[in-house]
Amino acid sequence: MKKTGLAWLILLAVAAAAQNNAPATMAADTGSPDRTFPTSASFPSERVQTPTNADLYCAGFINKQMLPDVNFVAGGLNTPNTTKFANGDMIYLAGSGYQVNQQYTIVRQLRDPNQYEIYLGERKLLKDTGEAYAELARVRVIDTRSKMAIAQIEFSCDPVNPGDVAVPFTEKQQISFHLPQKFDRFAPVNGKTSGRIVIAKDFDSVLGTGMKVYMNVGSSQGVKVGDYFRAVRSYEADLKDPVDSLSFKASTTEDTQKRPPAIEPDFLTRTKGPQIHVRDLPRRSVGEIVVLSTTPTTSTGMIVFALEDVHIGDGVEMDEQQ
Fold this sequence. Notes:
Blueprint: H1 2-29, H2 53-57, E1 61-63, E2 72-76, E3 90-94, E4 103-109, H3 122-129, E5 131-143, E6 149-156, E7 165-168, E8 194-200, E9 206-207, E10 212-215, E11 228-233, H4 236-239, H5 246-249, E12 262-263, E13 275-276, E14 284-294, E15 299-306, E16 310-311, E17 315-318
Parallel strand pairs: 12-13
Antiparallel strand pairs: 1-5, 2-3, 3-6, 4-5, 4-7, 5-6, 8-10, 8-17, 9-16, 10-15, 11-14, 11-17, 14-15
């Protein structure tokens, strides 16, 4: 009986403590309408993924001009029976200017085999932004006594093929990261440098944490390695999508509504009910991107936090929470 009585006392004490703490918690989560309070709904906590060396050296990039292709991969030790080369393989480099122990990055100028535009104006935007390149491997020249230099692949991201271009290797700048923080899901426009995700690595269109994106803002706009951008999307993007825009034409009302609303009156006949304009819906932030490398007009980024799917064509804005 003594043990039973002691247990009841403990339970009563815990319940009393919970009741005393409840008003304080509620008070912290409520306030005047003109103040913003971090909540799990609108300010979820970030779980930032840190890029590895493979992320840094295999990310690829967009360059405004086409890179010189006078130095390129001509073959390998087992040519013509082998056409793809990876870690440890010896390859032959055509061109000039090679020196023993010199390192080169093997890159590939890319073309998108997809014929369908993921977002309106994708082809034109990519053409205006520049040429897309994949970073495939780092090689070291081991012999220059023949007409072609002989090099060994020290690190490969993807298989190297004949015709891929060799450019001098440069060290990537290491990135410092901010500590985990709250992510403002409905952050208003902050007036900082903004642009757009033009395309993504491997021409993916729906993206998540760890994936690489290419943006049409670069060092000439003040962007530098280690900067953070938030990926943002307005609901007007759905209006421009031939598939998603169909949802605005569908009925969203209930039979019992006397004054049903009209969502985007351009699509539906006006009613006596409220008019809902998509452009007035809040802009939402969908993810955070860290800049891995830059050119004067473009930058390569890695998604380090995604609250939902990030899409190519999404807007990007310099994150003021750095």
